[in-house]
Amino acid sequence: QVQLVESGGGLVQPGGSLRLSCAASGFTFSSYVMRWYRQAPGKERELVATVSSTNSNTNYADSVKGRFTISRDNAKNTMYLQMNSLKPEDTAVYYCNAFRLRSLVEIYNYWGQGTQVTVSS
Questions:
Q1: How many CB atoms lie within 10 A of CB 42?
Q2: In DSSP terms, which residues pair with 119 in a beta bridge?
Q3: Is-contact 97 34, C-beta < 8 A?
Q4: How far apart are CA 66 and CA 95, in angstroms?
Q5: What is the pLDDT of residue 52?
Q6: What parts of the chain have a pLDDT lower than 50?
Q7: Per-residue pLDDT at 103
């Protein structure tokens, strides 16, 4: 059974930090590209950051570059998102995503349930 379980969300003041975790099980974690998405109230879900299967490449949305760091530990089947210098506009539900394209007809795409991050004074 595939599971992605996010943790680490909460309420933080502007300028503060949080570290999100995504624990994976039920699939070969090291073969998947992992991503963090977020969705704010009334807005579409947006891609925040991506890490390659080997942790060698990362990409970030312009809005979080220089403040957020994505990483993964394939030995622990876990992905992380270190969020620093948080702003009120970072308030959203953050989702963990696992993606693998084995062929044009064999695509695997899994989602976690999300964790709420609220940045407010």
A1: 5
A2: 12
A3: yes
A4: 20
A5: 95
A6: none
A7: 85
